[in-house]
Amino acid sequence: MSHLPHTLKLGLDALFPNFCISCQNHIQTDQALCQYCLDDLNLFDLTHHPNLLHRPDICDAFPDSNFDHLIACAWYQAPFKLWLKQLKFNDQQYFRVALQQVIQRQLQLAHQVNSSWPDLFIVLPLHNQRFLARGFNQVSQTWLPVLKNQQCTVSSALYKQKATKAQSQLSKAKRVKNLQNAFVCQQDLTGKTVAIIDDVMTSGATINAATEAIKHAGAKQVWAMLTCLTGLGNLHYN
Q1: I want to staple 226 with a disulfide (CB 3.0 to 4.6 A). Which of 25, 72, 94, 203 is the partner?
Q2: How far apart are CA 125 and CA 168, in angstroms?
């Protein structure tokens, strides 16, 4: 993640020591988690389930998926729940670094175990009103550096044209209605496999709406890539 010369990094480590957010052990300046704590996280096993839609419990949680392939890092629970909320609502950047370490690990594994790979990656866009109010897109902050590091082709073809209500207090049916015609794709994607990137999927309504727009633009397959998965029975995040 860092492009500092090795000697400069060593000097910065000595002058400004960095500590693991989990165990407080000393780590490199461009990290937030030590290797032991990263290894200890409860992540999805993508080796046995390269497409999480084929895992029975996840298939049951998201039975109406329009997308074809699902990759995610973990369930929306501790410590990811805290990290995502602190990043989204308080802009705590060291949690971004921790999440990037997790995403990079899972993305590398997913690339190894899947026989095919998306042609394009699209970060789920915010509506302009919400982006101006918040001042940043936490999904872009977290995922884009990792995607670029993995030499993935990132596109801004998807546009959110409808200022939707916050999804967190809506039922599943109202979530779907809330997102009707919310997205439009501004690029011909004929024959492409496209990955949609988001932080948390609760009902799948947002990803489904984006998938419809992307398939309408000609995409042959849509993958969903998430930081975390949750269910409608759990506490909401969106």
Answers
A1: 72
A2: 17
In terms of DSSP bridges, do strands 183-185 and 120-123 run parallel, antiparallel, or are they unpaired?
A: unpaired
Q: Give the position of tokens 């109010």.
A: 133
pTM score of the predicted model: 0.83
Alpha-carbon radius of gyration of the chain: 18
pLDDT, tens digit (0-9, with 9 covering 90-100), for 51-86: 999 999 999 999 889 999 999 999 999 999 999 999
* Torsion, Cα of 14, 17, 23, 27 (10° steps): -60
Residue 229, classed as helix, strand or coil, is strand
- The burial of 30, by beta-carbon neighbours within 10 Å (0-12 exposed, 13-18 middle, 19 or more buried), is given as middle
Q: What percent of the chain has pLDDT over 90?
A: 65
Beta bridge partners of 221: 193
Backbone dihedral region for residue 135 (phi beyond 0: left; psi -120 to 50: alpha; all else: beta): left
Beta-strand pair 69-75/221-229: parallel
Nearest to 21 by CA among 8, 30, 34: 34
Quote the Cα angle for 141-228-29, to 5°: 45
Extract long-range pairs of 31-35: CB within 8 Å, 24+ residues apart: 31/97, 31/101, 32/94, 32/95, 32/97, 32/98, 32/101, 33/98, 33/101, 33/102
